[in-house]
Design a protein that fits this description.
The chain has a nine-stranded antiparallel β-sheet with strand order 2-3-4-5-6-10-9-8-7, covered by helices on one side. A hairpin with a 5-residue loop joins strand 7 and strand 8. It is an alpha+beta fold and 254 residues long. Pfam families: SPDY. It comes from Streptomyces hokutonensis. This is DUF317 domain-containing protein.
Length: 254
């Protein structure tokens, strides 16, 4: 845990700010959404949704990696693998897209990136979006591609890869879109001043002063946990009958 007196800064672009405190995600799931800690010796953290269908894991073997996947009768049906230097806010947005899906159809996963000024690579053999600073590339493979991943992205500086993200073919499209929307966002992210910007990222990272503090970060987390608990309590149980629509009684005017 960071010390409460450590100052914070606002850093942008978000994809260069580092992972931050992973408990901002895990505590939200455990205490707010009622997930279970089913960690094994291979994982520092491995959480399961109350129905056991969704899993979020932080693998600390070698390079830290987030794993999001859903399981069904036939086993694992999709998986997202995310480097731990991807901001925890972005990973949380992906998980939230599963818990509270937006039912609006997604027609263009790369659309938010292109709208934010990311450019296509005309020489690539797939649909791409490259960040304005050329540090992040997001690729959407064609349907007949031999790649095991339908979508993948990487943040690379001077030959060093800070993070990668990869999604198998059956990953919910809303989850993939949650990442492109996060990457496209111009909003800075609060980070501890110590250790920011990350090594090699200085020339590309914009920092500004802020009054935001560790206490504020924890207060926001507690508010999100309270909101999640309220949403769970107000949601009807699975299989509950839908109440009949109320019939409006009208008084006939003479």
């Amino acid at each position: 845990m960071p010390h409460p007196t450590v100052p914070y800064v606002l850093a942008a672009p978000g994809y260069l700010t580092g992972g931050s405190d992973w408990e901002l995600l895990t505590e939200w799931l455990l205490r707010g959404h009622g997930w279970r800690n089913v960690s094994t010796i291979d994982y520092h953290t491995f959480l399961a949704s109350p129905d056991g269908r969704l899993h979020v894991g932080l693998d600390r073997r070698g390079a830290w990696t987030w794993h999001l996947h859903a399981t069904g009768p036939a086993g694992r049906v999709w998986e997202a693998t995310l480097g731990a230097h991807l901001p925890v806010e972005y990973v949380t947005a992906l998980v939230e897209s599963l818990l509270r899906p937006d039912n609006r159809p997604v027609t263009d996963v790369l659309g938010p990136l292109h709208a934010a000024g990311w450019t296509a690579d005309a020489d690539a053999g797939a649909h791409t979006a490259v960040s304005p600073d050329s540090l992040v590339r997001f690729t959407q493979e064609d349907a007949d591609s031999p790649s095991p991943y339908a979508w993948h992205a990487a943040c690379t500086l001077d030959g060093y890869t800070w993070w990668t993200a990869a999604f198998t073919a059956h990953t919910p499209i809303g989850l993939v879109s949650a990442l492109t929307r996060s990457l496209a966002s111009p909003d800075p992210l609060p980070r501890m001043a110590i250790g920011t910007p990350m090594y090699r990222c200085g020339p590309y990272t914009r920092l500004s002063q802020t009054d935001f503090s560790y206490a504020d970060e924890q207060a926001l987390l507690e508010a999100r946990i309270t909101q999640a608990r309220h949403h769970r309590r107000s949601r009807p149980p699975a299989g509950a009958p839908t109440p009949p629509a109320r019939r409006e009684h009208r008084t006939r005017m003479p």
